[in-house]
Design brief:
The chain is an alpha+beta fold and about 500 residues long. It has three domains: about 90 residues, no CATH class; about 80 residues; about 200 residues, Nucleotide cyclase, GGDEF domain (Alpha-Beta Plaits, 2-Layer Sandwich), CATH 3.30.70.1230. The chain is about 45% helix and about 20% strand. It has 14 helices and 16 strands. The strands form four sheets. Strands 8, 9, 10, 11, 12, 13, 14, 15 and 16 form a nine-stranded mixed β-sheet that branches. The longest helix has about 35 residues. The radius of gyration is 47 Å and the shape is rod-shaped. It starts with 5 loop residues before the first strand and ends with a strand.
Amino acid sequence: MPLSQVIVSGNRIRIGNRTLYLKSDGTSYIHYQGGRIIHSGMKRQSFESFYNYMPLDLVLESIDLLKSGGKPPVSPAYFKDRIVLVTATAAGLSDLRSTPFSPVTPGVEIHANIIDGILSGHTFSSPGTLITAAMICIPAVLLSILVFALTPIRGFMVFLVFSSGIPAISWFAIREDQILPLIKPFTAMMLTYLCVLLLKYLIEHREKARIRSAFSHYLAPSVLNSVLQNPDQLKLGGERRQATILFADLQGFTSLAERLPPEEVGSTLNILMEELTSSIQMHDGTIDKFIGDAIMAEWNVPADQPGHASLACAAALEMESKIERLAVERNMENLPRLGIRIGINTGEVVSGNMGSKGIFDYTVIGNEVNTASRLEAFNKEFGTVIAVSSTTAEETERHQPGKFRFRLLASTLLVGRKVPLDVYELTGYMSSPSDDQEDLFYEVYGRAIRKYLDGDIGEASKLFVKALELKPDDSASKVYEELCRKIGSEQLEGDWDGTYRQMKK
């Protein structure tokens, strides 16, 4: 072939109607035809070529025989239309090269494979710079999106799929005489995967820090840890769940505030709220909000808390004890005596972040929340401290039977409710020291309230009087004794159910 048909253009060499593709450094990929290693004794290896080899002395002998008119071992026709490469293959000449098929391949084999590739049209080509960049960047970007959106385990599975896809695609490309980049895409995906993992860790760490900072002021540590493990609970919106809600209001604080200098009102309220807050958080409650000199808290939200009703009852008794202690201390300073009223209810609520996307508040809403507020106010009418609903008392007894002492206050129609609700007073722990007279009082009171609800007003009145003899300062017995005297002088009309209607809210 004349040299005029060999044209070098850019990254390719045109040889007639054949093309040899070059890399950026001027070299070319070689399409090897094959070969194999022959193992002989003494750990020696030799290369068996895909091509035919012929010793030079045999060719020279054939030439001499032809000149002398003899029959040559190699006919001249053997070389017709063939390309012959002449080389020395002795090992001592250091012309052994390493190829994909053997580490001891004669150097002439490389030339033979290049020529063979050009003649057969099987010359490897590689994509250009733009295509190579796309092959590196597009999988890396797609992988980053998927890994960022998926869970760590699923993200790792996607990474494995992408990584295993690189050699598979490269293998099929080689069969089409295309050499695709292998190391660079894999390296890019590996670095992308690690960077996305680091980014997700930093985002999660920052999110947990934000949640901890925002909720540490009104979540108990155990509840806060549960929220940190599942931050999705803090999305805007709500979910239905069973919860126990507590409302507590400081009794006498308004009168106390009128006697204090203005600058001391805030500090005094902070001291009181600190005591109430510590009692709630000590029993794993969630502070919902402060409403003036009142406080709202809930249990079993946002995290599950078995025995949430009993936790609320224990917190209420703790709050009552602390306010009594503070009341004694303030009374020594000749200031109005402090008290507290607490209402507790258990029921289904909607809990979650309520408000707008920019500003929201984690809270609970629903009729059961209103009931807890009404129970707090119900204490005013019976002179009690802790009023709980029947659902709270039943839930407490179900989880910790016999731990708390409850007494039935009334079957009452709370403001805003259409169905009567049994209201109990939480008076303390059953394990608290008591005397025979106190036990007899609760037994007499229990019989009295049952007689009252049954409509036996005369017998109920006698029993309430007896209860007051045992405990003269019991305000609930006083209320019922007065009701019995009033009812006794009036004619009972219609069906009697003993329902007490709440007058104030």
